[in-house]
Amino acid sequence: MAAPVDLELKKAFAELQAKMIDTQQKVKLADLQIEQLSRMKKHANLTHVEITSLPDSTRMYEGVGRMFILQSKNEINNQLLEKQKTADDKIKELEQKKTYLERSVKDAEDNIREMLMSRRAQ
Predict the structure, then answer these.
(1) What pTM did the predictor assign?
(2) Could you tell me if 98 and 31 are in contact, meaning their C-beta atoms sit under 8 angstroms apart?
(3) CATH fold of 35-105, please?
(4) Neighbouring-strand partners of residue 64
(5) What protein family does this chain belong to (predicted)?
(6) Tens of pLDDT along 35-77?
(7) Which run of H or of E encompasses 67?
(8) 2-52 and 73-121 are packed helices; what angle lies between their axes, rounded to 10 degrees?
(9) What residue ranges do the domains of the chain occupy?
(10) Cα separation of 102 and 120, whole Å?
């Protein structure tokens, strides 16, 4: 009777370990993406602050591949604000994904604890 229980627990622990490793990798990836997006957002914000101090008649160029295109100050400001907004949205989305992953691992751990407690009670 003890052998099937042990096999069942071993299988559950193996699944939990695989899930933990996978989740930890996904959380690390999400952290790296959040960090990268934060840097991009900060860069766009600093550029926006610098551009706003320039006069409207200043010629501004946007880098596109290996060339530069003349753009108006308003267009560049709008692009920078849009970059900041999309970075914020992606950061929020990644944070939600990260909390979901952490919660799913915690649920799996709790399920195994319950299984152990029920086995000990028998």
Answers:
(1) 0.77
(2) yes
(3) Helix Hairpins (1.10.287)
(4) 67
(5) Belongs to the prefoldin subunit beta family.
(6) 999 999 999 999 999 999 999 889 999 999 999 999 999 999 9
(7) strand 67-71
(8) 160
(9) 35-105
(10) 27
